[in-house]
Design a protein that fits this description.
Radius of gyration: 15 Å
CATH topology of the largest domain: Signal recognition particle alu RNA binding heterodimer, srp9/1
CATH class of the largest domain: Alpha Beta
Strand order of the largest sheet: 1-4-3-2
Number of helices: 3
Helix content: 10-25%
Shape: globular
CATH architecture of the largest domain: 2-Layer Sandwich
Strand content: 35-45%
Largest sheet: 4 strands, mixed
Number of strands: 8
Number of domains: 2
Length: 123
Amino acid sequence: MNISGICLVTEDVKSLVEFYEKLFDTTAEGDHRYGYIIFGDIHFSFCSDEIEKNIAPDYNLPSRGGRCIIEIRVDDVHKMYGRALELNCTIPKALKTEVWGVTSFWVEDPEGNIISFLTPPKH
């Protein structure tokens, strides 16, 4: 089994895509209803409520306010932290090395989802 992607459902695809394009220093594909960024074999996508309702009309979308934590391993967590600070991102958890050796920090996106950037301990 492999994870093929993550999709964030949103009322405002455009602004969420713009946030992640800046954060990841990349360009997304798509339009105002659906966008995506590809990282290797994983699609990180953004889908409008409208499309989601058409795909699964009987599903009641939860109220706004994401509470998803997406963990992203990076080679240099200190460099990514500097980038997040430069972009004036909301950082609910500052850069810290945990007792188990992982160094990480959190960025909150405009809808409340958390992106945890981390570097595992060196062994």
